[in-house]
Write a structure and sequence with these properties.
The complex is a heterodimer. Chain A is an alpha/beta fold. Chain A contains ten helices and 31 strands. In chain B, 34% of the residues are buried. Classes of the chains: A alpha/beta, B alpha/beta.
């Protein structure tokens, strides 16, 4: 079957209910898929952009916790579907159709929405997570699935052994049949012949619809199940030899491709900082695969001299990404990702940091190795990222030492400011 | 002796099923609609429920979901004259599916099979 036909017969479900507790306080007021990333995006924009580039335009987004921010973003930024032509993006919060409860595990979230599959009767169901940053043509995964005999195929990434205990670890045979699967083991098995790296489940699943429904219906009746794909469904199917792993790697070099689960503040920080390196692992500027986002009507970025008693002071930007509407007036920005409509005033200096939309940094203020969420006012002369004791008294500090300032804080308020 | 709850809005079928299941050695109770059936599930704790799908008011599919929600261990057999329901994904959580016919032996055999499977699973 052609890829085009496969794509046409596929319904996409995006699981976007992630609480992202380890990303707190960035997830204080929003779910993980709605966390801003890269100056212009929310995390879910990467998955949705992949869908659009893959030709998948029948999408349900399953939402749950703190969904207002995500709802608003999807409505503003992703109202691009032609409903007349059969395309759609619908947001589905728990509807309590199956019992009076919220979504349990990931499998339960899909089970509670089996009526959607009944209504649409797609040939295949693609299940994605709204939490990950990567670029992937799902059509290739569909082609892989059609070429193999499993009832489910999952995408597999290669990651360093360190940190791999946060994922489902895969073992495959020479035909990419999954022969071993362990969910978040303390000591992950590495790839044979590659003792530093592991093959992991990316949370990207394609199922034949009937097989998915059969498995979910069975799982729903198991009293000892946590109703989770990683913990229950996949291990059971692997045992029956019905799962294949699609290697997410370059078709030319076979090198693993970029994929990040932005699970922690430090991984969020590092993935963002990668964007301002000379040759980032994720290319936002590839015209063939533009990541879409909600783009508010803001004027272009501007850097101007600031006026000081000594004359004028240039606004300087080095190795950074800066969003529209931002004005750097005599301030200096180095190796940072700056959101939209940010104001950086004379003599301020922002280094190795991430600033959300509408942040104001006052004169002489200094910010280093910090994540400052949107709408924060950093008053004149304040220093963030220099004195760990002072920072710890006011803000969250990640294990890697990055200072995180939650959104909507006016640090010039005497009650908050030291 | 296993207790079987029969939920069906057709009185003659309730009588027929009761007669045949009792003859096969089961204890039976009946309800004429889903709401009453759910009450009996709560109060009488049946070992198995036979649910008609098309009934006035709440249908058998919804009733099955509610039973599943209360106690996943109670097996449910869906019983309907319309075999097309077999293709309805919402019916797939049932332990078995039997199309209605004048010969009740398939239903009785299915009840026995489902209860045996349940007993095996528990052991």
């Amino acid at each position: 079957m052609s890829i085009r036909k496969l794509v046409r017969g596929t319904l996409t479900l995006i699981l976007a209910g992630g609480q992202g507790e380890r990303l707190y306080p960035l997830t204080r007021d929003r779910s993980k898929p709605a966390v801003p990333f890269g100056g212009a995006y929310r995390i879910i924009d990467f998955t949705l952009s992949n869908c659009i580039h893959s030709g998948l335009r029948q999408i349900y987004v399953l939402t749950q916790y703190k969904s207002f921010s995500l709802d608003q973003h999807l409505q503003r930024g992703w109202n691009i579907f032609s409903y007349e032509a059969g395309e759609f993006l619908y947001r589905i919060p728990p509807q309590h159709r199956v019992g009076q409860r919220w979504y349990g595990g990931t499998a339960d979230a899909v089970y509670q929405n089996i009526y959607l599959l009944q209504n649409r009767k797609p040939d295949h169901v693609l299940i994605l997570s709204g939490d990950h940053i990567y670029r992937m043509d799902y059509g290739k995964l569909l082609g892989f699935h059609a070429d193999h005999q499993g009832c489910m195929s999952l995408a597999a990434a290669v990651v360093p052994k360190e940190g791999a205990d946060q994922f489902g670890i895969l073992e495959v045979d020479e035909n990419w049949k999954v022969v071993g699967f362990e969910e978040k083991p303390a000591n992950p098995k590495t790839i044979p012949g590659d003792p530093d790296r592991c093959l992991v489940n990316m949370g990207v699943y394609i199922f034949d619809t009937a097989d998915l429904v059969r498995e979910l219906s069975f799982d729903a009746k198991q009293t000892d199940s946590r109703h989770d794909f990683g913990k229950d469904i996949i291990p059971r199917l692997v045992e029956q030899g019905l799962v294949y792993a699609y290697p997410f790697r370059s078709s030319q070099t076979h090198e693993p491709r970029y994929w990040r689960d932005i699970g922690t503040l430090d991984s969020y920080y590092e993935a963002t900082m990668d964007l301002v390196s000379r040759t980032p692992q994720l290319d936002l500027y590839d015209k063939d695969w533009v990541f879409r986002a909600w783009q508010p009507p803001v004027p272009p970025f501007k850097s101007v001299h600031g006026f000081t008693q000594d004359g004028t002071l240039p606004g300087i930007v080095e190795d950074s990404i800066v969003g529209g509407g931002t004005i750097i007036s005599g301030g200096r920005v180095e190796r940072s990702v700056i959101g939209r409509s940010v104001r950086l005033n004379s003599y301020c200096r922002v280094t190795d940091s991430i600033l959300g939309d509408n942040v104001t940094v006052g004169r002489y203020a200094r910010v280093r190795r910090a994540i400052i969420d949107k709408n924060v006012v950093v008053p004149e002369g304040m220093e963030i990222g220099f004195d760990p004791v002072q920072d710890a008294a006011l803000f969250t500090i990640s294990p890697g030492g990055v200072v995180v300032v939650p959104k909507n804080m006016d640090l010039s308020d005497p009650g908050v400011h030291l | 002796m296993s207790k079987i709850l029969i939920v069906d809005d057709e009185p003659h079928l309730r009588l027929l099923y009761e007669t045949e299941l009792r003859r096969a050695g089961f204890e039976t109770m009946t309800a004429s609609n889903a709401v009453q059936g759910l009450e009996f599930v709560e109060t009488m704790k049946p070992d198995l429920v036979i649910l008609d799908i098309r009934m006035a008011g709440m249908d058998g599919i919804e009733a099955m979901q509610r039973i599943l929600e209360r106690d996943k261990r109670i097996p449910v057999i869906l019983n309907t004259a319309f075999s097309s329901y077999r293709d309805n994904y919402l019916t797939w959580a049932a332990d078995a599916y039997v199309t209605k016919s004048s010969d009740v032996s398939e239903l009785v055999e299915t009840v026995k099979g489902v209860l045996e499977n349940k007993a095996t699973a528990q052991n």
